[in-house]
Design a protein that fits this description.
The protein is α/β, with parallel strands linked by helices. Helix content is 38%, strand content 20%.
């Protein structure tokens, strides 16, 4: 095999992945959605690029940001909004890796993916800030992926430890992001539209960077500024279907059951009075990043197939589906280099004790299945998280080729055993298969890139 060609494919895959991350740059996303004209704040409505604007007249703006991209989003906002019009010091909550010093802002690092006490204190600070809003003022909320875990504000009667235990069980059960957020909303005082409720009597506008498939606003950071169409009954059903209902803390079970019986206040729905004063702008998403990959791959001479725009399911099962799709595609004959691209968010059901994340597990599984099905040709497969952190590791994801399996074996790693133990990180590290970007400051879910050269 031509090593030079493989090295070039690896370089191309990594460059495409970085381009997808750059397309979700939160700083420019916010910068391009706000402008000041004649002492009026003009905010793009609906989605970035839309010509329709929402015009907001001061006297004051309350600025709040939370999520993995919170610092970059806030940096752009405070460059545009004159400081004299800010009602108080902006509160910015992000994961520890993405903490950046911002002048005249209260920047708080908090736990992700599992919430911690620092996150709870930040949520309480946000709630206190919202108590000071007045009529005709506006609350500008900058929302990005990870926000749900970063601002835990448990309902009364439930401790942070209760919520951490419940979240931990959901993550280990293979629950997808929508299922996890449904439960989180009903254990929170701020998620599921409840931040909008607390912002009254002020108006509210959310600038939202999406990390959710299909850009469901109610799922991004558990939808704190938009209506929630889920119920206490939905939350209970998810926990039972994932076979963890009997394992969650008794306080959580009791609260959810009381909610189902109508003894606890539901999250606000579409007709709630708080949403008469709210609006939003979708400033970035996985779809936008995937479209950039498609455009660049074509410019680089690749024929492009889009495997999925909303990739979901068990990571190792999706890997097998992709290998079979690729084998059939190659079987039809390739005249030109091809890029098979996807965007979305898979899941992993933890059964082992190893280290890794969904993108690393998908890459490891792809290398195993490619060998099993004897996938021919010169190929390179990358799966990575745009936030630069795949699961509880320092890697963004994994990158594998037809030689990865052999390199693991030479290093004394049994790939199949590593997959069974959910230990993709160790296996890929030994085979030079980790994608390392560091924290990117953004989060629009995952991207998958498979590049193939004709024989």
């Amino acid at each position: 095999m031509d090593t030079g060609s493989i090295d070039l494919l690896r370089q191309n895959a990594l460059q495409l992945f970085q381009a997808g991350i750059n397309a979700a740059d939160p700083y420019f996303a916010v910068k391009n959605s706000l402008e000041i004209t004649d002492n009026k704040l003009k905010i793009t409505l609906g989605f970035l690029g839309n010509k329709e604007k929402r015009i907001v007249c001061w006297p004051k703006i309350h600025l709040i940001a939370f999520g993995k991209a919170a610092c970059h989003m806030t940096e752009a906002a405070i460059e545009i909004i004159p400081q004299g019009y800010l009602a108080s010091k902006p509160i910015v909550v992000t994961n520890y890796e993405n903490v950046t010093v911002l002048k005249d802002c209260e920047v708080i690092g908090a736990g992700h993916p599992l919430p911690d006490l620092a996150g709870q204190k930040s949520a309480e600070a946000i709630a206190e800030k919202l108590k000071k809003t007045k009529e005709n003022e506006v609350v500008l909320v900058l929302v990005s992926g990870g926000g749900s875990a970063l601002i835990p504000f448990p309902v009364r009667g439930i401790t942070l430890d209760d919520k951490i235990a419940t979240t931990d069980l959901l993550l280990a059960s293979g629950a997808n992001i929508n299922q996890i957020n449904c439960v989180r909303k009903h254990l929170s005082q701020i998620k599921g539209g409840q931040l909008a409720r607390q912002a009254l009597p002020a108006e509210l506008h959310g600038l939202i960077l999406s990390d959710v498939l299909g850009d469901d606003l109610s799922a991004i950071a558990s939808g704190p500024t938009v209506p929630d169409n889920t119920s206490f009954s939905d939350a209970i059903l998810i926990l039972k279907k994932k076979n963890i209902w009997d394992d969650i803390p008794q306080n959580v079970k009791q609260f959810l059951e009381e909610g189902e019986q109508g003894c606890r206040r539901e999250t606000p729905k579409q007709n709630d009075v708080c949403f008469k004063k709210t609006n939003y702008t979708l400033v970035g998403s996985n779809t936008i990043s995937l479209n950039v990959l498609i455009e660049i791959a074509k410019k680089n001479g690749f024929e492009v197939d889009v495997f999925s725009r909303q990739l979901c399911g068990e990571a190792r099962e999706i890997a097998e589906q992709l290998v079979l799709y690729t084998k059939n595609r190659i079987g039809d004959g390739l005249l030109h280099p091809i890029a098979i691209l996807a965007g979305g968010e898979t899941t992993v059901t933890l059964k082992g004790t190893g280290q890794g994340g969904r993108s690393q597990e998908m890459a490891l599984a792809f290398s195993i299945v490619a060998k099993q099905y004897d996938l021919k040709g010169k190929w390179m497969f990358l799966s990575g998280g745009t936030d630069g952190r795949d699961g509880p590791t320092d890697a963004a994801g994994g990158i594998v080729d037809s030689g990865t399996y052999s390199r693991m074996m030479v290093a004394g790693i049994n790939p199949e055993n590593s997959l069974k133990d959910n230990d993709s990180y160790t296996a890929l590290k030994e085979a030079q298969g980790l994608v390392m970007t560091g924290a990117t400051g953004t989060n629009v879910a995952d991207l998958q890139i498979l590049l193939i050269q004709p024989e």
